[in-house]
Each structure stands twice: as structure tokens, then as C-alpha cells.
């Protein structure tokens, strides 16, 4: 049996009543702009999903009946475009006067529309930041905007014993600040080269601890290690992201979610949130409705 969650501004009381009547649904749980149709047959759940397929104001999320948050131990989230609304490298580039040059490469990388690997793309973008004053980091950080619902999601995870991490192809200055601000367990990301004597960026980048750049494979492997560290398996993992370099960790986690994602990611993820905030992830679990 399945539960079908509807979330977004298009979920109205009238719509919920109409669907319940039309499909003879049993238990229906509701909250503002959301509803959970409980204990549906796969055929009924998919019929409702097809009925709403063209409505971009409603997210339709299918999970096993009574899915419990207590069955999960780890959540890993991309940062840029997922936990926050910004693309931090684009913001720094704009401050340095090379915004268009960098943002065009960023778009291609996130959409999977480049022959460059993620690492090559990142190195190409970071090279444009050579000799930018270190102050661009703090200036960009000051403009960071959390995604709607980000704090509520992490509060929910903390309340239910889920370890939460930012896994980002971005940079430690940002991921550590965001993870700390939200009360997350930790963060893993790449390191910008800095010439401390001159107070400028070197235009270089390395991975965590100066190693390989954290890319799609690195995010998946980090997810696996964090699950092992928590005494969990991938069946107890949640992952969400928006770009092509998130696909491997989304595919590896039991609950993989494309969040306001590029088409290539939405096409491959089992669950997609496009009309709601990041806290829509909490609605997957029955405890969020009690």
C-alpha cells in the first residue's frame, strides 16, 4: 500500500475533497497547502498522480504507507540551489566583474550540458576568480538566502535523531557557515586557494583536505561513508539536490529527491519537489502529520 502526499499552493480544501470523493479514498490527513492520502493501492495512487500531472502548483510524492522518519538516520543535502537560493561562485564572480563568464559555465555544468567533467568545470570557473580580493567571500556570504523551509527541515531532522550534512561542490567558507547557522551535523565541500600574504584568491581549488575535488562520485561516496559512520545503510539515507552532480547521491539514497531541480535531475529522481519549500521533505514521513 502507498501514501500519496500532495503539497504546494494548488492544494486547496476543495481539491482534496473532490479527489477523496472521485477516488473513494479512505483516510486523508490535511494541513495548509498539503494533504496525505493514506493506504492507497498503487493503481489508485497513480491515477491521482496522473490527474494532477499537468498542475505545476502541486507536488505529488508517493511513498510506502506509513513511512516513518525513525527508519532513517542520515540526510545529505546539496547547498547551492538546494539549501540556499544562491550559486555562490556566481555571486563571487559578479563581485569580481566576471559574472557572465562564470555563470554560463555553471549553468552548463548543473544541467549536464557540457563535455567537461564537474571537476574540470569547477576549475575553469574558479580560474576566473584569480586575484579577486578575499573579501568577495564574505560579501557573497552576506547575500546568501536560505531556501524556504530549510530551517524547518533541519529542525525536524534534529528532533528525530537524523544526522544532517551539506555535501557541496562549492566551498568550505560557505558550507561551514550554512551548516552552523542551521544546526546541521557537518559539511563537506571544496577549498578555494588563497594567497594570504596578498589577500587574494589564487584561482585554484582542491577537494576536502586538499584532495580530489568533491564531485558527483565524491558526494555518493561521502554519503556511503556517513551512513557507515552512523551505523546505517543506504536504505536509511535521504539525499536531495538540484544539479547533475547530485544524481549519484540521489540515486544511492533510499529517499532521493530532486529539489527545484534541472530537467536532467527531475527525469531520473524518484521524487521531485518543485512547487513547495524544502520542508516538503518532512511531509514524506507520517510523524509530520501527527
UniProtKB/TrEMBL annotation:
- Source superkingdom: Bacteria
A GO-annotated cellular component: cytoplasm
Molecular function, one GO term = magnesium ion binding
Q: What class of enzyme is it?
A: hydrolase
Instruction: Name the Pfam families on file.
Output: Hydrolase
Which PANTHER family does the protein's record reference? PHOSPHOSERINE PHOSPHATASE (PTHR43344:SF2)
| Key words of the record | Amino-acid biosynthesis, Hydrolase, Magnesium, Metal-binding, Serine biosynthesis
Name it: Phosphoserine phosphatase
Give one GO biological process term: L-serine biosynthetic process
Q: Which organism is it from?
A: Sutterella wadsworthensis 2_1_59BFAA
Amino acid at each position: 500500500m502507498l501514501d500519496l502526499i500532495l503539497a504546494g499552493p494548488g492544494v486547496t480544501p476543495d481539491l482534496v475533497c473532490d479527489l477523496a470523493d472521485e477516488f473513494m479514498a479512505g483516510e486523508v490527513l490535511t494541513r495548509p497547502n498539503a494533504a496525505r492520502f493514506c493506504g492507497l493501492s498503487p493503481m489508485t495512487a497513480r491515477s491521482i498522480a496522473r490527474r494532477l500531472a499537468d498542475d505545476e502548483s502541486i507536488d505529488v510524492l508517493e511513498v510506502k504507507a506509513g513511512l516513518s522518519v525513525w527508519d532513517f538516520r542520515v540526510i545529505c543535502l546539496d547547498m547551492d540551489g538546494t539549501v540556499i537560493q544562491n550559486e555562490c561562485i556566481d555571486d563571487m564572480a559578479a563581485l569580481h566583474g566576471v559574472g557572465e563568464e562564470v555563470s554560463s559555465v555553471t549553468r552548463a555544468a548543473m544541467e549536464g550540458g557540457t563535455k567537461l567533467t564537474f571537476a574540470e568545470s569547477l576549475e575553469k570557473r574558479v580560474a576566473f576568480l584569480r586575484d579577486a580580493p578575499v573579501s568577495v567571500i564574505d560579501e557573497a556570504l552576506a547575500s546568501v538566502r536560505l531556501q524556504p523551509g530549510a530551517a524547518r527541515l533541519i529542525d525536524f531532522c534534529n528532533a528525530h535523531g537524523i544526522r544532517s550534512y551539506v555535501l557541496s561542490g562549492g566551498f568550505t567558507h560557505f558550507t561551514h557557515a550554512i551548516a552552523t547557522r542551521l544546526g546541521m551535523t557537518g559539511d563537506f565541500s571544496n577549498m578555494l586557494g588563497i594567497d594570504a600574504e596578498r589577500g587574494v584568491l589564487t584561482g585554484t581549488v582542491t577537494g576536502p583536505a586538499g584532495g580530489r575535488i568533491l564531485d558527483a562520485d565524491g558526494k555518493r561516496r561521502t554519503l556511503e561513508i556517513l551512513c557507515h559512520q552512523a551505523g546505517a545503510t543506504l536504505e536509511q539515507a535521504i539525499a536531495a539536490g538540484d544539479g547533475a552532480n547530485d544524481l549519484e547521491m540521489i540515486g544511492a539514497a533510499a529517499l532521493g529527491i530532486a529539489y527545484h531541480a534541472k530537467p536532467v535531475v527531475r527525469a531520473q529522481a524518484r521524487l521531485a519537489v518543485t512547487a513547495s519549500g524544502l520542508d516538503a521533505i518532512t511531509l514524506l514521513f507520517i510523524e509530520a502529520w501527527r
